[in-house]
Design brief:
This protein is mainly beta and 458 residues long. The chain is 8% helix and 57% strand. The protein is built from 3 helices and 20 strands.
């Protein structure tokens, strides 16, 4: 009973810390990524502090105090009489650089809420809420029609997709528990809303032609009969998908364990309810006033989401040492947004992760009981640009990252507080492109307690 109260106090304190961090992050200046304009946005979203600190490795990983959504077969690691609750937060510090300028900002958000529990000694279940993608971008370009006539093209978008998961896993034990095979399935409900807009700005007395080489031109105005216009679509998405996972572990005579795991995400046709709005407006000192609504219509559509599959290997000395590697392939070339088949030509891509952790001595002093982690991750990226336009040829937008992490045990319990630090680079400043340097801090709590048996003594 005392242990259970300690777990509840730890969870409450952790949630209070997250609330404070979220308020601090919200108060800071947010920064949008121009690369989230394409596809369904940025899919390299933060998963959790534990996974981030070991390079995203998870296909051949199964623990009794971690909810690992990357491979649903991993739920079999949950103890027969335990309940696991997992929640986390992350804060991103982002610097975007081009060949001419540099800007910085930050953002923070909850990363996940998850829990897992046993149904029988062989059947385990898990559920949770995790992000799938985020969209947040602003971009513009000034077009010169004549010596005295200019207009600006403006693009912006915001929103994102999330998924609620309900998963189950069943394990098969062979050869007197030395070999273990588990099979898992996630039923995923994908939902979210995002908006993509484009505008032509003819008259705005706050705009400056910062791209103009003529320093005598500070503001631009054309015939007042030409109003600014904006065309945008709101995509409202609700759909189901499935993720199948498999894990196999062999335990050697000395207790060491070798694992292999894989996961397959089915291709999906996402149903969307869309609203298109086209209107004209005037703008003064940053305040817009609508003049005429040209179009306001609703229609249904579909987004074709690609299949992906991954494979991972691991070797560990339980409660002492772990090393693992993952590879994931996603067929982004099959992505389709509504009828815009040729709008965003995306590329098939690989993601490769490597990670390791060590716990010096679970019976030693507190620092020896802590877990120390390191991870590397490489994402080939599904975008390529040629002359500032997305293309199947040209400069590919790749991402590299390195991470360190710590696991802090809560005394007299199996609860673990995980802290991760990740530094990465996405893109390049070559060929008029943008490079993103990010530093990400992740914090998560994995609370585990025995809830499914009655103690004789309290």
């Amino acid at each position: 009973m005392k242990i259970k109260k300690q777990i509840i106090r730890s969870v409450t304190a952790f949630l209070l810390i997250i609330t404070g961090l979220l308020q601090t992050a919200t108060a800071q200046e947010a920064l949008s990524s121009p690369y989230s304009r394409y596809g369904i946005g940025n899919t390299n979203v933060f998963s959790n502090a534990f996974s981030s600190s070991i390079g995203g490795v998870g296909y051949a990983l199964s623990r009794n105090n971690i909810v690992n959504f990357k491979n649903p077969a991993s739920y079999c690691g949950v103890d027969t009489m335990s309940f696991v609750f997992d929640v986390g937060f992350h804060a991103d510090f982002l610097t975007m650089s081009s060949s001419k300028t540099q800007v910085s900002g930050m953002m923070g958000a909850l990363s996940h809420i998850a829990f897992a529990f046993p149904v029988t000694s062989h059947l385990k279940m898990a559920a949770g809420l995790v992000p799938l993608s985020d969209i947040d971008y602003e971009a513009s370009e000034v077009v010169q029609v004549s010596d005295t006539t200019f207009y600006r093209k403006q693009y912006d978008g915001y929103g994102g997709l999330n998924k609620v998961l309900l998963g189950a896993a069943y394990d098969f034990a062979f050869s007197k528990q030395k070999d273990n095979l588990s099979l898992g399935l996630n039923v995923e409900y994908l939902f979210g809303r995002y908006t993509k807009r484009s505008a032509l700005i003819f008259n705005d007395n706050t705009d400056t032609l910062f791209n103009s080489t003529d320093t005598s031109i500070h503001r631009y105005t054309v015939d007042s009969s030409l109003y600014n216009s904006r065309d945008g679509v709101i995509y409202d998405i609700k759909s189901f998908n499935f993720n199948i996972g498999l894990q196999y572990f062999h335990t050697f005579n000395n207790g060491d364990r070798f694992g292999i795991g894989g996961s397959y995400v089915l291709p999906l046709s996402l149903n969307t309810n869309n609203t298109r709005q086209f209107y004209t407006f005037v703008s003064s000192n940053g305040v817009e006033s609508t003049r005429d609504i040209v179009m306001d219509s609703s229609y249904s559509g579909k987004i074709t989401f690609p299949q992906s599959f991954g494979l991972g290997l691991s070797y560990e000395k339980p409660k002492k040492f772990f090393i693992g590697a993952d590879a994931q392939f996603t067929q982004w070339s099959q992505f389709r947004l509504q009828s815009e088949d040729a709008a965003d030509p995306l590329l098939d891509s690989w993601n490769i992760g490597f990670g390791s952790e060590i716990t010096p001595d679970i019976y030693g002093n507190y620092f020896a009981q802590m877990t120390y982690r390191i991870g590397l991750n490489y994402d080939e990226g599904y975008m390529s640009f040629d002359n500032d336009r997305i293309s199947t040829q040209g400069t590919r937008i790749k991402q590299y990252s390195v991470a360190l992490g710590l696991g802090f045990p809560v005394r007299k319990s199996s609860t673990l507080i995980n802290l991760s630090f990740e530094y990465g680079i996405k893109g390049t400043t070559a060929n008029n492109l943008i490079r993103e340097n990010f530093f990400r801090i992740g914090l998560s709590l994995s609370a585990k307690d025995r809830w499914f048996f009655k103690r004789k003594y309290q």
